[in-house]
Recover the amino acids of this structure.
């Protein structure tokens, strides 16, 4: 059950009440880390920390209620942002909130290899952007917390075909739905490795723009609303489909996208 009330500062507080025994805030946060998809846990966690950290509780509720674009929520976010990534702030280049908690982070590949488990022990990260990853793909592929990701962005890292082949050989990518490989120096051999792997059963979208070959469906021309006039599957994409069968990330639907690259939280 949801309700809303203005607090003493005039900001809008969204609340949700639950029947049954309430777990401790520590128990609830551990449950969130184990199951980031369960948003009810976040509502309950906000209730549990209300007495000790009311500002963070309100921010979580505002995000869950999709009310985070208000002036009050922006000011609240600015006030408490410096402490939201603790105690691993020093390990992150940047980070973003989703559904009230940190779900997207940018890290160097070396930091991820050496300290990734520390980050995932404190935040329900679903989307990882890696920088400075060239030459480190063997080590990256061995990090077990990759299995917590639904999205991995390596765009701009010149990992090449060998780096991609090493990555897709990882046994830790079973939940990955979105993969960013724009400008990574990927050629036909890398595309073949990606199509041939059986380690990415959930993969739905791959950004392969600005590489050595065209692989995914491309839109051409432009209607008045910005949508493409027609879509074509490049020859290499057709060959991969013929060899490996239907692959969701090679579906022509992505070529019909009005706004280009699909966001990680859209698949």
């Amino acid at each position: 059950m949801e309700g809303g009330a203005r607090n003493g500062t005039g900001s809008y507080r969204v609340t949700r009440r639950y029947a049954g025994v309430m777990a401790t805030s520590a128990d609830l946060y551990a449950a969130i880390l184990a199951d980031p998809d369960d948003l009810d846990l976040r509502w309950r966690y906000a209730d549990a920390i209300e007495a000790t950290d009311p500002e963070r509780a309100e921010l979580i509720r505002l995000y869950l209620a999709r009310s985070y674009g208000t002036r009050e929520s922006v000011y609240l976010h600015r006030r408490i942002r410096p402490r939201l990534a603790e105690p691993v702030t020093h390990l992150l280049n940047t980070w973003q909130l989703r559904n009230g908690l940190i779900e997207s982070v940018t890290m160097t590949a070396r930091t991820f290899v050496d300290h990734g488990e520390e980050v995932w022990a404190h935040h329900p990260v679903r989307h990882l952007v890696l920088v400075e990853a060239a030459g480190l793909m063997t080590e990256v592929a061995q990090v077990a917390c990759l299995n917590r990701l639904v999205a991995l962005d390596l765009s701009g890292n010149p990992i090449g075909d060998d780096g991609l082949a090493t990555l897709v050989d990882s046994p830790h990518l079973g939940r990955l739905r979105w993969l960013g490989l724009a400008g990574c120096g990927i050629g036909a051999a890398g595309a073949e490795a990606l199509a041939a792997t059986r380690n990415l059963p959930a993969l739905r979208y791959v950004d392969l723009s600005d590489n050595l070959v065209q692989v995914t469906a491309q839109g051409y021309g432009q209607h008045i609303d910005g949508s493409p006039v027609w879509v074509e599957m490049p020859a290499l994409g057709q060959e991969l489909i013929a060899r490996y069968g239907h692959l969701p990330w090679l579906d022509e639907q992505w070529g019909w996208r009005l706004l280009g690259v699909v966001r990680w939280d859209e698949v």
